[in-house]
Amino acid sequence: MDAHLAVRARGITKCFGEVVALDGIDLDVARGRIHGLVGPNGAGKTTLLALLLGLAVADSGRLEILGMPTGRTFEDPGGVAGFVDAPGLYPSLTARQNLAALAALRGDDTRSAGIDDALEQVGLTDVADDRTRGFSLGMRQRLGLAAALLARPRLLVLDEPANGLDPAGKKHVHGVLTRLAGEGTTVVLSSHRMDDLEALCSEVTILATGRVVFSGPLGELAAGDRELAYRLITSDPARAHRLAAAAPGVRLAADTAGRHGGEALVVHAPVPALDALVAGLVHAGIALRELAPVVSPLEAAFLALTEPRAAESRDTRQREDDATDPRRQHAQAQPQEAGQ
Ligand SMILES: Nc1ncnc2c1ncn2[C@@H]1O[C@H](COP(=O)(O)OP(=O)(O)OP(=O)(O)O)[C@@H](O)[C@H]1O
Questions:
Q1: Which distant-in-sequence residues (6+ apart) come within 8 Å of 49 by Cβ?
Q2: Res. 70: pLDDT tops 90
Q3: According to the UniProt entry, which residue ranges have a biased composition of type Polar residues (predicted)?
């Protein structure tokens, strides 16, 4: 047991029939952090969140939540709230009545449950007495978050919380999550929105076909040997182009000259080579006016780490299909036969 961890998972496996949704997951989530979960469709994010919420039980492995081991006889560690897929709401009840019903189910006094406060936190005060039947996706997500807040969780688990939110709603929700983390609540959230994850999370876990392919601080994704594409705007594009072309470890993007009217230089480089190029430009008296990754480090890592695995998994499945499909075995045998 580690007191600093809100979640500690070791070797978690979960299958649905033949489908291996989680395949030996190890995960550490530090208390008071916002931890992002990202991965392609079907990677296992929702399954993992469901385990954290106690909605499902792992087939094997060890999962500790808020310091308590969970198991087949799931003991609610208390202090965990959130939703997967989408929050469950009663459509014929108003937003306020929905929260009151949830509070009553938990045995809380609905007058002191903090319903107005929760509605205000997520920006739904104006529609508190509207039936949720007419709520948009973004409003439902916000009400789901309000419902989770009522439980005053120490671990908040959210599946795509920014789904359907307009920019103001997103800002609101980001503000709530950041404040909660500041107060010590741990937040684990899944999202396909890299910009949301980068804005909110200190750490991310990237899943691919049920396995962890990266877990750690966001900063680690940009560091080291990983080569990213960067756009540079300088005071002297022609000289900057020549210097970049000669810089060790730096590759010019094929169409760099055509971009941004020839003003911008696009290079592929790991961080140390980029640093040396920037130092070289400055040394040559060329001012750097803008330097930004073309795709964010998280998005680049996501693509680099998940696409090969998805392709590998497809290839494996294809090989397995081929091996068990007599028609394919026959089809594959044909060229050999033809050559005989
Ligand atoms: N109840 C279930 N019954 C059968 N298979 C399931 C079930 N739940 C999940 N799966 C399968 O487990 C795998 C992981 O699904 P999961 O929903 O956890 O992925 P995800 O990363 O959340 O995907 P998405 O980004 O599309 O929501 C998928 O192959 C999915 O089809």
A1: 37, 82, 84, 157, 158, 159, 188, 190
A2: no
A3: 331-340
**pLDDT digit string, tens, across residues 155-206:** 999 998 888 888 888 888 899 999 999 999 999 999 988 888 988 999 999 9
Residue 298 lies in a domain: no
Q: Does 204 share its domain with 267?
A: no
254 CA distance to ligand 1 centroid (A)?
39
How confident is the model at residue 287, as a pLDDT?
95
Which residue reads 């911008």 in tokens?
264
- Residue 42 beta carbon below 6 angstroms from any ligand 1 atom: yes
Say which amino acid occupies 261. Answer: G
Range of the domain at 330: 303-339
Q: Enter the tokens of residue 76.
A: 């609610």
Residues in the chain: 340
How far is the centre of ligand 1, averaged over its atoms, from the C-alpha of 41 (Å)? 8
- ipTM for this prediction: 0.97
